[in-house]
Every structure is written in structure tokens, then in C-alpha cells.
Amino acid sequence: MDGDRHRRFDGYDRFDDGIRAVFGAVTPANHRMETVMFGRIVMAATLLAVSPSAVMAEAVSKKSLRALSGMDRRLALLGAAEAGCKPSPLKVSVVTQPSNGSVEVKKGLSKPGALSECPALRVRVEAVIYRSNAGYSGTDRTVVRVEDPRGNVQLMQFDIDVKASDTAPM
């Protein structure tokens, strides 16, 4: 793909601070991997599948995390695939911008093998990146909406504890 429009997201060690949200329930997950899924939509390097018929419309997941003031913090890495190893495009949008920072969605590609059932497939992913205002310290919140091609929707609420940074932002 075009290097200006797409960035590769690979390296399992990048996926930390994990939670798993299935049908709106939040439980701890592997600390080396971050997974939020509904239907065939998942966050992270490992793409898993659950039955679309078991999915609730407008499922909500909540996640608390920490960030350094003025520094980028990845909130989510989202990608999807359908049965038969076909990529499934997602619609990712920011519903509520944080009051003390900004959120942007960046497009990229997963590495081949991220989905064990389809080892050669490179899935389009979207990274949700948060950055607080420089010098801000305190709490912030943002809400992101993810929709799959079948119309299943998940809202992802991120509560962010922003701490002062020892290094100046670039």
C-alpha cells in the first residue's frame, strides 16, 4: 500500500495494557495483547471471531488508562476479517473529543499472520491515538464509535489519567 496513507503496525510487544470486552463485559486479558471484539471486529494483533448473531447492537466497552502530558498514547488498534479470510472494513469515528486534548484515527496494515486462520492476510487497521494538551495533568475522557459492515456498533469509552511528563513533547 501507499506508504504515505498506510503505516504498518506489527510487533506483538506493542500491545500492552490489555482488556477484553465481549458483549459489553470487561475482563482482564493478557498484558502483552489488547483485545476488544464484537462480531469479527477486534483490537490488536490477534484477530479472533465470535458469532455475529450473539453480538449486541451498541455494545459499550470502558477502559481506564494512563498517558503522559503532551505525548501520544495509543488507545486502540482496530481491525476486522470475515469468514473466508476476506478483509472487512470498519467505520471508526470519534464521538466525543476529550476536553483537554485531541484524538485522531490513523490507518495502517497488520502484519501477515495476525489472524491464525488466515496466515497470509494483512488486515487494514485503524489506530486511535490520544494526545493531551501540553502541560495538562488530570483526567480526560473520549468516546469512539466502531461499526462493522453488518451494522454492528460498539462504543468505546476511554477514561484517561494524564500525568505530567518529564520530557518535552516533540
Summarize the helices and strands and which ones pair or pack.
Elements: E1 7-9, E2 19-22, E3 25-28, E4 35-38, E5 41-43, E6 59-68, E7 72-82, E8 86-87, E9 91-96, E10 101-110, E11 124-132, E12 138-147, E13 153-163
Parallel strand pairs: 1-10, 2-4, 6-13
Antiparallel strand pairs: 2-3, 4-5, 5-7, 7-8, 7-11, 9-12, 10-11, 12-13
Give a quick summary of the entry:
With 170 residues, this protein is mostly beta strands.
Notable traits:
170 residues; mainly beta; Immunoglobulin-like; 9-stranded mixed β-sheet; 4-stranded mixed β-sheet; disordered N terminus
Provide a descriptive summary of the structure in words.
The chain is mostly beta strands. The chain has one domain: Immunoglobulin-like. The protein is 0% helix and 51% strand. It contains no helices and 13 strands. The strands form two sheets. Strands 1, 2, 3, 4, 5, 7, 8, 10 and 11 form a nine-stranded mixed β-sheet that branches. Strand 2 and strand 3 form a beta hairpin. It is elongated, with a radius of gyration of 16 Å. It starts with 6 loop residues before the first strand and ends in a 7-residue tail after the last strand. Keywords: Membrane, Transmembrane, Transmembrane helix.
